[in-house]
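Structure tokens please, single chain.
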Amino acid sequence: MTDERDREPGQEPDDATGSFDADAWFRAQFGGAPEPAVPPPTAAPVPPGPVPPGPVPPALVEPVAPPLAPPAAVIEPEPTQPAEVVPPAAVLGDATTELLREPETGASLDELFGESSFQEYDDTLIPAPPRSERRARRGSGGDGGDGGDGNGDGGEPAARAPLGRTQKVLLWVAGGLAAVLALVAVFVVGTRIPLLLGPAPGAEPIASASPTPTASVDAGRVGPVPPGDYRWDELGGGECLEPFIDAWQDTVTVVDCATPHGGQLVLRAELPLAEGALTAGPYPGEPLLASQALQLCSSAGVLDLAAAGEFRDIVLQAAFPVSPEEWDAGERDYFCFVSRSSGEPLTVSLVGSGPAPTALPTAPPAG
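Here you go.
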């Protein structure tokens, strides 16, 4: 048995036998690797027991969303004051930049103000365009409104736009329509007055300084013609016409006067010469012939007043030469037609005994 006092420092006795372990001492002195320790035996692992089931999560229930309401309209208050307009801010530095620009070269100035940039002009007055022959023949009436009255003091003329060509044409058309309506009114009034008033008993014609036509019937013309179709200048007077449109039909149909008919030519006669005249002379004009023909057709004896009294809407129309060409061709006759304004037919002949060869009353000359 080894004494513990004989052991070197650092020498440990063997735990099992209590003897000296040289290997352990040698490793302690020279740093050898220690002997690996033997791990103690371990117990066999115990198998895990059954895991208890965890809590069951509740079923998910989706919440019901509330109904979505449309957003309310945004009503902006109406401004009571006008919106303020902010002027754009002036860009600083423009004036300075303008002053620092380089001056234009002499070539640019010569190009702008050189001799080739100027041209001579004619200082003579430009003549006004001549007036057209048509306007010159019509005279100055209707054209004097463009030049003013000439009483100004040399200042600016009145700001009044001249009438255009279309406006002038419309004015002339309106004037022509007014003249036609006036003639129609005179014609209607002239045809109704003799029928309503009748010949005045004991009336004497008024003496007139102007020549007065006298009624005359051409004895060489025979009428009425038998029923059939004729031109207007082939009628002799007394024919009943069906249909009847107006006094200016080119062709007519003659029917028996015992049958209903639209109109009747009660008289065809030659326009009389003025007192003291030997020839008819040049064409007197449509207005004068229209007035003269109406006077002759309104003479006593042209219409059978007793037969015409059966009707209350008798209309008298006159036809005559309407152009210088017809007048120069020898047409001198006037025609007197009767019809009804209601359009109802006539059933009897209204031809009178014939106009009396006396002077017709005319209005005294003006002045």
